[in-house]
Amino acid sequence: MDAYTIIKRPVVTEKSTIQKEEFNQLTFEVDKKANKVEIARAIEKIFKVKVLDVRTSKVLGKFKRRGKIMGKKRDWKKAMVTLVPGAKIDFFDGV
Question: One digit per residue, pLDDT tens: the chain, 95 residues?
């Protein structure tokens, strides 16, 4: 797999922002089939940083309703990546 197909997008929430500031952890949406080693290599290749640890979890999509019709949001995989001390990735620091 290509590094850019493994890493889909950064997850920017209040919790992920706190983790970034306090623990040097970043959260990404990744491909469902990717494992921890592939995710770490992809992050190192794309952002040119050293990865210390990767934790993954599967996020189940919520059921939503519009009138009588029931629908479901898609399932996705989340990866919390811990960088070595001193490493940094700037997403929205200038905003």
Answer: 899 999 999 999 999 999 999 999 999 999 999 999 999 999 999 999 999 999 999 999 999 999 999 999 999 999 999 999 999 988 766 55
DSSP notation for the chain: --HHHHEEEE---HHHHHHHHHH-EEEEEE-TT--HHHHHHHHHHHH---EEEEEEEEEPPPEEEETTEEEEPPPEEEEEEEEPTT----SSTT-
Instruction: Record the pTM.
Output: 0.89
Pick the CATH number of 3-83 from 3.40.190.10, 1.10.10.10, 3.30.70.330, 3.40.50.1100: 3.30.70.330
